[in-house]
Amino acid sequence: MKNRSLHFLGNGIRYLLLIVVSLVILAPFLWMITTSLKDQSKIFDFPPQWFPSPIVWSNYADVFKDQPQFLLHYWNSLYIAVLVTAGTCIVGALAGFAFAKITFPFKNTLFLILLSGMMIPNEVTIIPNFIWFSKLGLVNNHFPLIIPPILGAGGIFGVFLLRQFYITIPKDLDEAAEIDGCTPWQTFWRIMAPMATPAFATLAIFTFLNSWEDFLDPLIYISSSKQFTLPIAMKLFTDTAGTSWHLLMAASVMSTVPLLLVFFAAQKKFIDGIATTGLK
Known about the structure:
The protein has 14 helices and 2 strands. It is mainly alpha-helical. Helix 3 runs parallel beside helix 6 (143-151) and helix 3 packs antiparallel against helix 10 (197-213).
């Protein structure tokens, strides 16, 4: 009886701690949502009003009136993130398969050299890359926001992630496919790629998230307002008169929608991918 009481007490404390930690983590997100539905005069009331009254739904429509190019900025972020995610998955899938399943000279050495690229911070290469893109006439467009992430540290991480997944697939499967007459490309396309869906989901979520939230690279490469992405466009809600917090929070809520959709769409595969690639 005593042990059962201690067991229930332990579970109660555990759940209480989980609830407290969850509330602390969710508090900024809840503040963002409630602020997006408040009148501007009530945003900084104390104590904070967690349930706005009245609910000002028009804040969401006012975002587009205050910033007529907001939809264009939204589209810029969306298509860049989609292209970067697709490119990273393709490069990671092909290169990861080659490093995991194909034998060629200096394979391990080349892989180590490739991994060393992940050790170089992005901040170190920003100025050389900017000079290079500037000489090529590619500044102030989206090219520097798409190609470098695919072939840079993000792409290398994709190669590493997919290689680790392919290694876990038994070699007998490769040999059976070879006996049946499959070429390396057919083995990849018909057998390995479908089995790597959890790893693809994991890589897609990480890549989409990084590209969608990237602030530094657009800040450096983009100067035209028509080319802005969402992280840069958010600063347009601040002017000499101050920050329009209700509109900024409404825009922020809208900017989280693609992230939530991508996560929930790939949630199950994402968890499988983490478990099978040893990231947990």
